[in-house]
C-alpha cells in the first residue's frame, strides 16, 4: 500500500465528518436559497405548516371591500386584468413570494394542484400570484404540471393594491414580496374571504382553503 493511499484512507473520516457538520450548519440558509427548476430535479422537500391563529394577521383589503379590478397581471400570453379573470367565475388568489427561490412557495403551489377540481366543482377557479417574471412562472408550471395558471406581478403593484406587501423586506431579492395570503374574489370584485399569514412557513392547507371557500 502506497503512502498516498494510506493518507487518503486516514483523511476520509475527517472529510465525511466535516461534510456532515457543514450540512447541519446550513439548514437554516437552505430554506431561502435559490432552487433550480428543471424537469429532472424535484423541488426541495420542506414542511409547510398549517396556518393557525398565532400567524394570522388582519392585513390587506377587508372582507366585503372591493378588489382593484383594473389591477394588471402579466402571463406568457400577455396582460390580463383582475376584472377579466373573475368575469366568468370567482377566483381564489394564492399570493406567494417566489417560484424561483422560495421552497415553501414551491411546495404550496404544487400541493394546491390537488384541489383544482374540488374548487371547480364549487364554482371557483384558482391562480397563483408572485412577483416573478412570467417566464420562470411558466417553466415552474410546466415542470410541476400545474393545472392552474400563475399570474406575474413583477412590480408588486397588485400586491400593494391588496395591501399585503411584507414590510420587513426593504432591500434584496425579497423586497416586494407579499405575505403568504389567500384571497377569494367574487365576480363583481368583492372580497369574499381571505387568510393572511405573517409567517411564510405557515400557509393554509388544501383542506383549510376549501374550508375558507365553503364558509362563504
From TrEMBL:
InterPro entries found in the cross-reference section: AhpC/TSA (IPR000866), Thioredoxin-like_sf (IPR036249), Thioredoxin_domain (IPR013766), Tpx_Peroxidase_subfamily (IPR050455)
Please give the Gene Ontology molecular function terms for this protein. Answer: antioxidant activity; oxidoreductase activity
Which stretch is the leader sequence? 1-19
Recorded hits in Pfam families, A to Z, give:
AhpC-TSA
Record keywords, A-Z: Redox-active center, Signal
Thioredoxin domain mapped to chain residues: 61-216
Superkingdom per UniProt: Bacteria
PANTHER family given in the database record: THIOL PEROXIDASE
Q: What is this protein called?
A: Peroxiredoxin family protein
Q: What is the lineage of its organism?
A: Bacteria, Pseudomonadati, Pseudomonadota, Alphaproteobacteria, Sphingomonadales
